[in-house]
Write a structure and sequence with these properties.
heterotrimer, A mainly alpha, B mainly alpha, C alpha+beta, A: mainly alpha, Cytochrome Bc1 Complex, Chain D, domain 2, two-stranded antiparallel sheet, 4 strands, B: mainly alpha, Cytochrome Bc1 Complex, Chain C, Helix Hairpins, 2 domains, 15 helices
């Protein structure tokens, strides 16, 4: 939305896209308040960790996240020991060794979170021809960002009366076109949260959305903190130079 | 001032020794310190130096980013999103400074151009100064376009495809020319690599052009809000008056720039560009960066064959390029002897009409070329060319300018808003 | 305007002006330097480089008398499981015989394990002796083929042009069978 606003400023006025394309764009996403929003926004570590659990136990069955390295999990508040333990649950292909053979070994913190499929073709073949997209940047890569991802996850329902269904697709009012190849991924108590939070669909959707927002913008907190320092410094400098400029120019009187 | 150079007051013998043999210090002293600038410049004159600073910012961040970027179709996206944004120290900052810097640079330059249009800064004897400026604009457009391709997101890819395909409209040589541009039969790795090379080269060409732009500027000195030639007593040394004013303006600009870099860093980046380039999936709306929107609207406004000999596609391409090239002839298209719009009661209105026209074109360019958007784009395009090719030449003949002052202390200025402090 | 007072009282006004000038340009300078820091710091090792800056070595498969080479930060590191005889040789040398006097205890955390950076301190060649069958030099340690430096079983220089003993990497034993280098 913010991007749209900017474009509209640059382009004089915002006009909606014409009716025929609007219908194909899906319902307007729910507008939720996220803790990472706003100038002072920060991530909610507990939500990120729950979100990671949802990602790991649900999403990662089909979706890869090629920019997630185990070591990055320090960013959601996990310590090195936990990261090591999580990594060692996975095996990765390494090599070749001294005899020229590839071998499997437990993953280490510097490894990438393993993809469920060896290549896109295998991913398509296992998912009825649809490719489960990489989730690393998904929040930045969709109009509507976190609101859209959340809406999509909770937006499954029966199609409206008379709506013609699509073979192998599920109705989701937030998805452009209304029919999505991804089956509803969440249902109540599909996982058991380590911290005992009740695993409702809304809770899991909100948690994993925050995790994916972090995954798309791991620099967010550092960026906003540095931004605050920058803005304060420049404000002071603006004031000083305003005063100095006036003083210098007063010599011309 | 170009004939006599003032020697800087050296405190160090070493500096004097160097300067006698290589007079760079004398040159810098004369251009940046004692350069006599009109004392009545308003804040619209800040934008030239701001744009100059942005060029330096872009080059500095760009040189660093290149150290981490991999110019290869298979690796470019990963090197930006997986490496620079996540692993390189301050990589996200450098990338966002650079990406948003392009938008800031264009915003500053467009304001700078419209200031020139309003105050007639392109008129005799500053024609070459203006033409060099248009050359810089063209180079900036090429640089920005190729830079936008480098992250190799899906919008990068399709923007490159659409824009390079423009050249296929050229009769006879169009198709082979596009193949030559691509180095293949679609936009692919060879295209990315040549764009990378040129994206690194062109900013230095721009730098050289900015140097010439300054040389031409200092030949006759800056224009001023009154548009009249000022005598020595109405000029003040560049330092400290304008250095201080420029830094103050820079601070204000930094607040805007900083807002985008730190709080809305992806405001100017299409979400589609966070999806890796995919030759099989065209985005539903291909929209260029905002600074190209007016030109994009002109490109798409020509939906009809022209005089039975120019097909619509070629017509659009010609119109788009003509909309920039017409600026080269502006110093001669505008026949008025009076520079500043302040003394041109009718031109003033047409100037603002042109501003609105360009904004309307930008708005039309952001939307699909159909219905009212198309009508707006076509009317906007028509008016754009009318302004430069018909209105400006005629206006100089029929408009009666207000009486011009002869100096800043001229009684003609009494009672006007622009009265300089005295 | 308030500026009229400045003209009446030139010295005071001048001093104030100078102070403001100093503050203004210092702020500008500090800001510029701070802005340049990210450009410079970006050239330091990235998180990806630092993530592989330490190497974990599994000691279990190494037999007594065996030496292996592991890579650490792009450099070879020699891990030697010394025999009783080798330990004896290393500990019994009088310090005054050494060019770079260091007792064996200062070079090992556990006498059984010698861990050194496998780069000759002369001109940076990789000494021989870590693989079975390679010459180990006169003191049964390592021998640098480039200019003939001999190292003993504690990796100390004994003969040849090298000025120093083989360098020790920072390391610690995570467990009895695991060592973390770096």
């Amino acid at each position: 939305m913010r991007r749209m606003l900017i474009v509209s400023l640059a382009a004089f006025a915002l006009a909606g896209t014409p009716g025929d394309t609007r219908a194909a764009e899906g319902a307007r996403p729910l507008d939720r308040d996220w803790p990472q929003e706003g100038i002072f926004g920060t991530f909610d570590r507990a939500a990120l960790q729950r979100g990671f659990q949802v990602f790991k136990e649900v999403c990662a069955a089909c979706h890869a996240a090629k920019y997630l390295r185990f070591r990055d999990l320090a960013g959601i508040g996990l310590d090195q020991q936990t990261i090591k333990a999580i990594a060692s649950e996975y095996t990765v292909l390494d090599g070749p060794d001294d005899s020229g053979e590839m071998f499997e070994r437990p993953a280490k913190p510097f490894d990438v979170f393993p993809s469920p499929f060896p290549n896109p073709q295998a991913a398509r073949a296992a998912n009825g021809g649809a490719l489960p997209v990489d989730l690393s940047l998904i929040v930045k890569a969709r109009e509507g960002g976190d609101d859209y991802i959340y809406s999509l996850l909770v937006g499954y329902s029966d199609p409206p009366e008379g709506e013609e269904g699509l073979e192998g697709a599920y109705y989701n009012r937030y998805f452009p076109g209304g029919w999505i190849a991804m089956p509803p991924p969440l249902s109540d108590d599909i996982i058991e949260y380590a911290d005992g939070t009740p695993a409702t669909v809304e809770q899991m959707a909100a948690d994993v959305t925050q995790f994916l927002a972090w995954l798309a913008e791991p620099e967010l907190e550092e960026r906003k903190q540095l931004g605050l320092k920058f803005m304060l410094f420049v404000l002071v400098m603006t004031g000083i130079f305003y005063a100095y400029k006036r003083r210098v120019w007063s010599r011309l009187h | 001032m170009s004939t006599e150079m003032q020697k800087p007051p050296f405190k160090s013998g070493v500096l004097r020794w160097i300067d006698e043999r290589l007079p760079v210090l004398t040159w810098a002293y004369n251009e940046l310190v004692v350069y006599p600038a009109p004392r009545n410049l308003n804040y619209w004159w800040n934008f030239g130096s701001l744009a100059g600073i942005m060029l330096v910012v872009q080059i500095m961040t760009g040189v660093i980013l290149v150290m981490f970027y991999t110019p290869h179709a298979d690796l470019a996206f990963d090197s930006v999103e997986g490496y620079i944004m996540r692993d390189v120290n301050w990589g996200w900052l450098l990338r966002y400074i650079h990406a948003n810097g392009a938008s800031m640079f264009f915003a500053l330059v467009y304001i700078h151009i419209f200031r020139g249009l309003y105050y007639g800064s392109y008129k005799k004897p500053r024609e070459l100064l203006w033409i060099l400026g248009v050359v810089i604009l063209l180079l900036m457009m090429a640089t920005a376009f190729m830079g936008y391709v480098l992250p190799w997101g899906n919008m990068s890819y399709w923007a490159a495809t659409v824009i390079t395909n423009l050249f296929s409209a050229i009769p006879l040589v169009g198709e082979p020319l596009v193949t030559w541009l691509w180095g293949g039969f679609t936009v692919d790795n060879p295209t990315l690599q040549r764009f990378f090379s040129l994206h690194y080269l062109l900013p230095f060409v721009i730098f050289a052009m900015v140097f010439l732009h300054l040389l031409a500027l200092h030949q006759f000195g800056s224009n001023n809000p009154l548009g009249i030639d000022l005598s020595k007593k109405d000029k003040i040394p560049f330092h400290p008056y304008y250095t201080v004013k420029d830094v103050f303006g820079f601070c204000v600009f930094l607040l805007v720039y900083g807002y985008f870099v730190f709080y809305a860093p992806t405001a100017f980046i299409s979400p589609t560009n966070f999806i890796p380039a995919d030759p099989l999936q065209t985005p539903t709306h291909i929209v260029p960066e905002w600074y190209f929107l007016p030109f994009y609207a002109i490109l798409r406004a020509i939906t009809f064959d022209f005089l039975w000999i120019v097909p619509a596609k070629l017509g659009g391409v010609i119109a788009m390029f003509a909309s920039i090239f017409v600026l080269f002839f502006l110093p001669w298209l505008d026949t008025s002897k009076v520079r500043s719009a302040r003394f041109r009661p009718i031109y003033k209105w047409f100037f603002w009409l042109l501003v609105i026209d360009v904004l309307v074109l930008g708005w039309a360019g952001a939307n699909p070329p159909e219905g009212w958007y198309l009508v707006a784009a076509q009317l906007g395009t028509l008016y754009y060319f009318l302004h430069f090719l018909v209105i400006l030449p005629m206006l100089g003949k029929i408009e009666r300018p207000l009486p011009l002052p002869t100096s800043l202390s001229d009684p003609v200025l009494r009672g006007t808003r622009s009265q300089p402090a005295s | 305007m308030a500026d009229s007072s400045v003209r009446h009282d030139e010295p005071a006004g001048g001093r104030r002006r100078d102070f403001l000038e100093l503050v203004a340009w210092s702020t500008f300078g500090v800001g510029t330097l701070a802005a340049i820091w990210p450009l410079i710091d970006s050239l330091n090792p990235s998180a990806a480089v630092l993530a592989v800056a330490s190497t974990e070595v599994d000691l279990e498969p190494i037999e007594v008398g065996q030496r292996i080479t592991v890579m650490w930060r792009g450099k070879p590191v020699f891990v030697s499981r010394r025999t009783e005889e080798e330990i004896q040789m290393a500990q019994s040398v009088p310090l005054e015989e050494l060019r770079d006097p260091e007792p064996d205890e200062a070079r090992v955390q556990n006498p059984e394990w010698l861990i050194v950076i496998g780069i000759c301190t002369h001109l940076g060649c990789v000494p021989l002796g870590n693989r079975a069958g390679e010459p180990r030099g006169q003191w049964a340690g390592w021998f640098c083929p480039c200019h003939g430096s001999h190292y003993d079983t504690a990796g100390r220089i004994r003969k040849g042009p090298a000025p120093r003993n083989l360098d020790l990497p920072p390391y610690r034993f995570v467990s009895d069978t695991q060592v973390l280098i770096g």
